[in-house]
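Researcher: We're teaching a course module on how sequence relates to structure. For the next exercise, students receive a sequence and then see the predicted structure as C-alpha cells, so they can try to spot secondary structure elements on their own. Here is the exercise chain.
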Amino acid sequence: MDEQYIKQIRIFHYATRLPVTLYSEGKIIYRRPAEQDCVMKLLFERDMMDGIQSSENQLLTPQYLSNEYGEHYIYFQLDKNHALLTGPFLRGTYREDDVRAMIRKTHPSLCHREKLQEHFCGLQPLSDNSIFYSGRMLECLFADSVAKPAEEFSVKPQNIPTAYFQNTYDNRIRLFSHPPYFLEQEICRLISSGDSEYAVRILSEINTQSRARLADDPLRSLKNSLICSCTLFTRAAISGGVSPDAAYTMSDSFIQIIEGIDSIRTLSGMEEQMINSFAGMVNDLMHERFSAVIRNAIRYIDSNLSEKISVNEIAKAVFVHPNYLSSLFKKEMGIPLSGFIRQRRIEEAKNFIRFSNSTIAEIANFYQFSSQSHFIKVFRQITGITPMNYRNNSDSLSVKG
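Model: And here is the predicted structure for the students to work with:
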C-alpha cells in the first residue's frame, strides 16, 4: 500500500511542485522533496505537523489549514494510519514587511529573523483557486487507490451527532478556517488608531475565508458573527480614546440595524461600515486633538517600530521640514518625538518579553536600541521595573491564572 501511495505522491508533486509528506502512524515515511523547511523546524526543531490542527475523522477529504506564522497546508487523511501533508506554501504573495509584521505579532526568537525571511521568500505562492484545486487533485488521485474496508470504517449513525455529519459535509464543499487571531487583533489595533483604510484591507483578507457557522440558519449565523465583530470594534474604539457611552451607543445602533435586515446580501457590507464608523470616531477625536501632520507621523512610527527611524525620515514621509515636525510634535503631544518613539517601542517590546523566549539583548536589538543596557535603562524609566522583572512577574501571573 505504501508504494501505491508514493507513486501517487510523485504524480502530485511533479504536477504542482508542492512539497508533500507521507505520515504513517504519525511518523514520516516519505517526503518529496527529501529536504523540507518549515517555521516549526527553523524555530523549534519540530515537525511541521506540530503547528497545525487537523481532524483525523475526515477520510479522503482535503483540509485547508494554516499556522500562526502564515504557512498554509493541505492535510489529507488516507486511511486509519496514513496521512498526507502538502506544504508549506503561501496564500498569495509574501513581502518582507509581512515577515516583519509576523515577527512582531507572534514573538519568535529574534535571532531567527533572517532565516524566516529567507524561508518565506522561497515558498511557493498560490491563489485561492490553486489551493482549492490542489486539494481536489488529491481527492481524484487517491479516491480510487485507497481501499476502505467496511469493517474498519463503518460506524453506527445513531452514535454520532447529526452536527458531525453536517460539519463534515460543509468542510468537503468549501475552504474553511477561522480567521487567524493576529489578523483580528490587527484590525482592532488599526481601529484604535483610526486607520480604517488598512483595517478594511485586512478585513478583505479575512473575508476570503468562509465564516464559522454560529447557527443553523445562514442569516442568523451571519447576524451572530457581525454582532461579535461589533463587540470587538466597540472595545477597540474605546481603547482609541472614544468615550464608552458614545462607543456603546454606536454599537447598539449597529446591532439594531443588523437585527432589522433580512437579506444576507445587504448584511455582507455591514462589517466594513462598522469599521469605518468606529475608526471614524477615533479619527474625529484625533482631529480635535492632533493635526494631520502629527496623526500621519504617529502612523508612520507605528508601522516602523522595529526599523531605524530618524526625524528626517518621518518628516519626509509627512511632507514637512524636520525642525517644524519636532516643534509641532512637542507642542501637540507634550513629549519630544524621540521620547514618543521610545515609549511606543517599549510598549510593544513588552509583548516580546512576555510571550517569547527571545533574550533581552535580542529584543533590544530588534527595536533598534544601541545596547542591552540602554534598553534596560529606558524600559525601567518608562515602566518602573527591569525587563527581567517584568518577564518574571508575567510568568507568575500566568501560573496563577
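Model: If you want an answer key for the exercise: The beta strands are 20-24, 27-32, 63-66, 72-77, 82-91, 125-126. The first strand starts at residue 20 and ends at 24.
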